[in-house]
Amino acid sequence: MGKISYSTLKKLCSRNQSEVELAFTTIFEKYRYLVYYVSFDILKNEEDAKDIVNEAFLRMYDRRTSFMKESQLKYFLLVTARNLSIDRYRELKNRLDYSDDIKGTEDSGGISLYLDKFKDILDEEEYKYLLLHLVYEFSSREIAKANGLTTSQISSKYQRGIKKLREYYGGEF
Asked: What's the sign of the alpha-carbon dihedral 90, 91, 94, 99?
């Protein structure tokens, strides 16, 4: 599926309900698997990931008038899915009964474990930009536009984060 056109994004704001539904369906079809993957990577549960997909798209629908570029829409969906998934993960983790019969559901080999460690090492902005670039594959230009910064500012913060991680892990990670 190709890029989401400006006219499709414009139809999301239309007063004609059939245009809105068509535009929403087009966007949903393009991004539902990506949003699902982001959520499933964190939660490791199919049903919870599907719930997050629904919630992320509902939130996108509520804010549909604020997206003028596909990159803004994609950024919103991915960050929303990630944040909702982390919240759900914490909620589920807090409900676990840590008895002798139950072992944690954490995936020790998954990327989520590393990302949690990175949070302890990096400041909030460095972590955010590193995550957007490495995990969600946004370019520095896309991240800069979405955050109202210049590409060089994003690049600098990203490089500073990489440097901190290298120093922390002794040059290897």
From this structure: negative
